[in-house]
Amino acid sequence: MPDTIKYTETELVLLLKERDQSAFGYLYDNYSGALFNIVLAIIPDRELASDVLQEVFVKIWRQVALYDATKGRLFTWMMNIARNASIDVLRSKSYNNSQQNRELTENVYANAGTTVTNTDKIGLRKVVHSLKDEYKILVELSYFEGYTQDEISKMLNIPLGTVKTRLRNALLQLRELVKN
Amino acid sequence: MDTRAYIESGIIESYILGVASPEEIAELELLCTQYPEIKAAVDAFALVIEQQAMAGAITPPPAVKENLMQQLAGEFAVKQPAAIFTLPTTNANDNISIQPAAGYWKFAAAAAVILLVASAILNFYLYSNYQNTNTKYEALLTEKNSLQASNGAYQTRLNLLQQSMDIVQNPAYTLVALNGLPGKENNHATVYWNSTSHDVYFLSTKMDKVPQDKQYQLWAIVNGKPVDAGLIGDCTDGLCKLKSIEGASAFAITLEPKGGSINPTTSAMFVLGSVNKQS
């Protein structure tokens, strides 16, 4: 990167809101790798994930006016856009057709928690992989596949309260794993 | 509330990873505004996740950036070709870039504000100076008027005294000294009488204070009989002209009821003096 200018998060957001091209270039250079990590953990197909990443940056660019710095960090906001965009693709018909061996939406009860395969080395997946099974399923369904706690409760036939507690415990353990 | 338990409940992690329910999100965002320690825990975990993603960054194919720049080409702000200045950067962690146009306008706005404030201060200063001077001018004007008035008064008095001097120095006037009678020895008065023009002037040298309801009256003795020569009013400045008298041999002053009497009250005679014919 020949660009040696470094922005603080506040400056960067301000410039993005002013539609500054070099700020956008900086944003991409700085965060594309980390966001690609987020996308790839959900969409293992690199080509498809690249398309998703492009879409994610378009969304970030067009929605940056909605970002509220008082509510949280810029990356957290972008990460959520990346995750939601990825899950949207994951759940789309075309994606499911391309994944011939899996029918996630139609047979989710049977397949719940078992879709973790070749992406185990990527990002949070790597961490989640070392959780115990009953935690792993919950994180998989909620974070990687975007199911609500209510949906998960029905899928796994576990009371909603249990899903809630267990998911929270799973995330606390995940936190410790990420920290180390 | 027990913020510690809340922080350790796993809800913060759910929130940051985007798996919290809408109710949980609403509750957490509200609590963040009330408890700085909860907000701090949220930010801390967000940073952990960010750092983890950064550390595990996977460089996307270069085509993604190219495509993006092409796709968004029409949405970028048009750069001003005017002077662009960026602050030189030394520390990679703490660099600032200033937008050229914004910087210029900020500078211009700041300069304008400073000028405005300075002008306002100067105006205020000049105005208060003006007020001050005006007040002083008014005071001087008043003083000048009062001086002029008293000057006029002095002039009148001077004229009066001048007239008195003329009479006193005029050889046609005879000075008649009226001396206090027994019991009234402290009293003295002077009458200037012109035997030719018959004018009578009175000069109060030293007379007792007159009670409220009384008044001094001058009498001339003509052919042995008292003739009213006039009431003595306020006669502090020089001579007072009284009634003309012909052929007076003496003058006397009695204290009479206010308004005077036809015949003198001899018991209340204060001073008496006879005319010394010096012709």
From TrEMBL, chain A:
GO terms for MF: DNA binding; sigma factor activity
A single Gene Ontology biological process assigned to it is:
DNA-templated transcription initiation
> Record's superkingdom?
Bacteria
Describe the location of the RNA polymerase sigma-70 region domain by residue ranges: 27-94
Q: Locate the RNA polymerase sigma factor 70 region 4 type domain: which residues?
A: 124-174
List the SUPFAM superfamilies.
Answer: Sigma2 domain of RNA polymerase sigma factors (SSF88946), Sigma3 and sigma4 domains of RNA polymerase sigma factors (SSF88659)
**Which keywords are on file for this protein?**
Sigma factor, Transcription, Transcription regulation
| UniProt keyword Transcription regulation, yes or no | yes
What the entry lists under CDD domains is as follows: Sigma70_r4 (cd06171)
Q: Does the keyword Transcription regulation apply?
A: yes
> Per its UniProt record, what NCBIfam families does this chain match?
sigma70-ECF
Q: Which family is this protein grouped under?
A: Belongs to the sigma-70 factor family. ECF subfamily.
Q: By what name is this protein known?
A: Sigma-70 family RNA polymerase sigma factor
Query: Which organism does this sequence originate in?
Result: Limnovirga soli
UniProtKB/TrEMBL annotation, chain B:
Give an example GO biological process: regulation of translation
Per UniProt, residues of the Anti-sigma K factor RskA C-terminal domain are 108-267
Taken from the record, one Pfam family name reads RskA_C
What is the top-level taxon of the source organism?
A: Bacteria
Transmembrane segment boundaries:
107-127
Keyword field: Membrane, Transmembrane, Transmembrane helix
**Gene Ontology MF terms:** sigma factor antagonist activity
* Record-given protein name: Anti-sigma K factor RskA C-terminal domain-containing protein
Species source reads Limnovirga soli
- From which lineage does this chain's organism come? Bacteria, Pseudomonadati, Bacteroidota, Chitinophagia, Chitinophagales
